[in-house]
Amino acid sequence: MAEKFIKHTGLVVPLDAANVDTDAIIPKQFLQKVTRTGFGAHLFNDWRFLDEKGQQPNPDFVLNFPQYQGASILLARENFGCGSSREHAPWALTDYGFKVVIAPSFADIFYGNSFNNQLLPVKLSDAEVDELFALVKANPG
Fold first, then answer.
1. How far apart are the first and last CA of the chain?
2. What is the DSSP letter of 54?
3. What is the pLDDT of residues 76-92, one digit of tens each?
4. For position 35, what pLDDT does the model report?
5. Residue 57 phi/psi, 5° resolution?
6. How many beta carbons lie within 10 A of that of residue 48, not counting itself?
7. Rounded Cα–Cα distance for residues 117 and 3 (Å)
8. Integer Cα distance of 43 and 20 in angstroms
9. In the 8-state DSSP scheme, what is residue 21?
10. Which long-range contacts (CB under 8 A, 24 or more apart) does 22-30 make?
């Protein structure tokens, strides 16, 4: 289980996408386990990898960029975590190393599941998120 925190400082990775659904966060073929560990390897599997087995990294996907390795804060656009209500999505994010997700809005079930799984979802205005994207892109890593 992840440690509780009241303040977090970390590297931010900009996932400039809206309506990121739970199927993208953790594809259904990896949902066979009921333990909370081992899902990070498959986080954004269909975006991070060019092959189904997760052997060939997609060089164009932001989580594979060297400057964002070890990031613990994910910056995204509106409606993050939409789609099915699988609790595996926050499991995958925390198992990968994320502690915080910042977005203008979250799907309701994902939002609740995040708190239950030591992932802090932070809602900011569209303008604030735009400003953060500009800052992170101007100063990667």
1. 27
2. S
3. 999 999 998 778 999 99
4. 67
5. -60, 145
6. 18
7. 10
8. 12
9. B
10. 22/81, 22/82, 22/83, 22/84, 22/85, 22/86, 22/88, 22/89, 22/107, 22/110, 23/83, 23/84, 24/83, 25/81, 25/89, 25/92, 25/93, 26/86, 26/88, 26/89, 26/91, 26/92, 30/88
Q: What percent of the chain has pLDDT over 90?
A: 75
Hey, CA dihedral for 20, 103, 122, 75, is it positive or negative? positive
Half-sphere exposure of 18 (CA within 13 A, CB side): 7
Contact (Cβ atoms closer than 8 angstroms) between residue 71 and residue 10: yes
Cβ(26)–Cβ(89) below 8 Å = yes
Quick check: 114 and 81 in contact, CB under 8 A? yes
**Top-tier CATH class for 12-138:** alpha beta
